[in-house]
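Sequence only, no structure available. Ideas?
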Amino acid sequence: MLELLHIENIAVIEAADIAFRPGFNALTGETGAGKSIVVDALGAVLGGRTSRELIRTGADKAFVSACFSQVPPELPGLIETGVAPDENGELLLEREICADGRNLCRANGRPLTVAQLRKIGGELLNIHGQHDGAQLLDEEQHGAYLDRFGRLEGVLADYRAAYDAMASLKAQIRALQMDEAEKARRMDSLRFQIGELEAAELVPGEEEELREKRELLRNGEKYLAALSGAEYCLSGGDDSDGAASLLRNAQEAMGSVRTLNDELAELFNRLGQAYSEVYDLAETIQELRQRFDFSPAELDAAEARADQLYRLKKKYGATVEDMLAYLERSRAELDAMETADDTLVRLERELKGKEAAVTEQGARLTAARKAAAAVLEERIQTELRELDMRKVRFAIDFAAKEPGPDGCDTVRFLMSANVGEDLRPIARIASGGELARIMLALKNVLAEQEAVGTLVFDEVDTGVSGRAAQKVAQKLAQVSRRKQVLCVTHLPQLAAMADTHFSVEKGEEKGRTFTHVVLLDRERRKAELARITGGAKVTEALLASAGELLDEAEEYRKSIAQAAGTA
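Reply:
I predicted one. Tokens follow.
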């Protein structure tokens, strides 16, 4: 249940705290006062789409939080995101909307993405907005409504698995059934590419070795000169001794006195170590110089290989490893094309099995849908009778179609508004008031199948008046015995039926527009109902009528509470 909604800098609402209560909560107010902004704020904190235009003029960010109580910890969205209600079963959802487009979302202090927030929010609260009637007119949505009611997710998942397997096989067959001329061109192209890559004799890692070798060969003369100079300094030549010989001489000079004390002995040993190290360096440098065979022809060969790799990389991949991977794919594709006829025969045999599986799973899905449809039809008819639509007939029609991702049948909701008229698509005959009541009936039935604890109706009374409005009010009162109901309304019948009544009031302060949400007591409820009924001029007669309306609503609420207690 939604306990508290906190709003900051949303449209004309600078700051508001709305403490909702169990049962039926109504929000009324003048047109443009900001009633739907409250619903927009709810949508935002539940992860709905928002825009920067929602932020109040002059503010750099907006903030909404919603506190829910009695939250079941086993909700899939909570388990999936690792969020848990606190020890009191409460869950606090928060969303900060920044002017630069950033969104900061949290659940009980845990950071979330907008998608994760939407997942959790959809399991706590359901909003029936003014556009939902249009969804009811969209026949493509009817199958989804039926599947939700029948809880057919498992059967639908089995069907889709079979359909996806069949669709994948058909795609493979289409790829093999290309035009013969196109196939020949493609095979010629693959053979050329494979031949070119195989002739290159690519070796993984050779680029790095080639790069080092080219750099060395390009600086060959400098390399040899450096090694020769170092060798001369260490080993000497015909006209002079090198460092190794001089160190050896120095050690021999110290040899006659090394036994006189420890210090002289240490110097003698250090000279020996220095001689050994310099001698090893001289040998290493000599070996490098002798091993290096600088040849202009070798440099030309390295440059040619680098150029070859550069040209191949432009066509087949950024690295030698990428080109080798391309070679393997090309070989596999060529092999598949050369054996395409055999593969086609095999795939077509497999396809028959996949099509049979789709037919079988599709029949299971259709049977499950028809069973659910029979129950849904009866439930909707019952709801419509309670909404004063006794002459309306509601039916669900099935028509076979080619298998698709959503099944092998088209589902349509049909209705007949008057006795003797044929069943027709809802879009062709439903008036605005009828559409609103059918949608209310459908929402009520679907809500019974869901764990959602709060239902929000944004102007569900569109096109409804008189006796029909009273029936809608009674239906919402009945629903509010099982779920918390929040309703934005312009009808006095609905507002009077509420257990809790809020007024959304707009005013001006210091040249700025402000909206406040006020909890009404009985006297202020009478005044508000009188305003809704009679407009700007509130008379004693209107106030008396409003009082009677409140009394009648209270009696009705008591009667359904007693009926529920008896049941």
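The chain has a mean pLDDT of 84.
Hope that gets you unstuck.
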